[in-house]
């Protein structure tokens, strides 16, 4: 299988449809456009998500319980906007159910991802790893970035799969992250928005996420793919309303905010870096897999 794939292969493990866009959309679009094979694995259909399209309200879990099927279509459209053609659901679509927020009764649903047997779920991912043999994998940190049970479980499954995959395991593993310096700047900018996601937060250190700048390993500049990321966000209309703060800040700062994504490194050696913190600008750096000549220019 890998003989027919590009030399660079990137695997992303996300919890729900739309998670891939907000934290890694620009990175995915960048690598897809520059010739890498990008594989997205989503662990649930996002059945417990809040619905922001009034005419679709009856799809919610407490009524028709059809939101997961609708979000599957949204995810397909988002991947098309990002140029990603290889997308799978862990264990197949519907194998694991959205667990809802931490502490809710939905955590105890018999198919809730939060309750999944770790080795069984990891085995599904190992099959994909052995098929694709990605050199780089992206997932969440041990807190799932902000504490959602499915994000935490996605982290556990991805890391366990990397252990079980043996020689086929990715050489480098990254976790999504946000530098405290960027959060501070963002909090200042958000204060001017009516839909301020940080309302009531006085200090950036009080947020459940954020890393000191020297803990960040990579800064992916995907500003050239900002419009694709925005289009992919709009594909997830049930989850990201038109008046979302994401669009508000994007309108003010554009690609400068939405097109740059950050990561810590959990496995492997950092490649060549730049800037005051020596951040990597290529997740494949140091692996001897150079980007094809002219790939970036050709994608623009």
From TrEMBL:
<keyword id="KW-0479">Metal-binding</keyword>
<feature type="binding site">
    <location>
        <position position="16"/>
    </location>
    <ligand>
        <name>Zn(2+)</name>
    </ligand>
</feature>
<dbReference type="Pfam" id="PF02585">
    <property type="entry name" value="PIG-L"/>
</dbReference>
<dbReference type="InterPro" id="IPR003737">
    <property type="entry name" value="GlcNAc_PI_deacetylase-related"/>
</dbReference>
<dbReference type="InterPro" id="IPR024078">
    <property type="entry name" value="LmbE-like_dom_sf"/>
</dbReference>
<feature type="binding site">
    <location>
        <position position="19"/>
    </location>
    <ligand>
        <name>Zn(2+)</name>
    </ligand>
</feature>
<protein>
    <recommendedName>
        <fullName>1D-myo-inositol 2-acetamido-2-deoxy-alpha-D-glucopyranoside deacetylase</fullName>
        <ecNumber>3.5.1.103</ecNumber>
    </recommendedName>
</protein>
<feature type="binding site">
    <location>
        <position position="151"/>
    </location>
    <ligand>
        <name>Zn(2+)</name>
    </ligand>
</feature>
<comment type="similarity">
    <text>Belongs to the MshB deacetylase family.</text>
</comment>
<feature type="compositionally biased region" description="Basic and acidic residues">
    <location>
        <begin position="271"/>
        <end position="280"/>
    </location>
</feature>
<comment type="function">
    <text>Catalyzes the deacetylation of 1D-myo-inositol 2-acetamido-2-deoxy-alpha-D-glucopyranoside (GlcNAc-Ins) in the mycothiol biosynthesis pathway.</text>
</comment>
<keyword id="KW-0862">Zinc</keyword>
<dbReference type="GO" id="GO:0035595">
    <property type="term" value="F:N-acetylglucosaminylinositol deacetylase activity"/>
</dbReference>
<feature type="region of interest" description="Disordered">
    <location>
        <begin position="271"/>
        <end position="300"/>
    </location>
</feature>
<keyword id="KW-0378">Hydrolase</keyword>
<dbReference type="InterPro" id="IPR017810">
    <property type="entry name" value="Mycothiol_biosynthesis_MshB"/>
</dbReference>
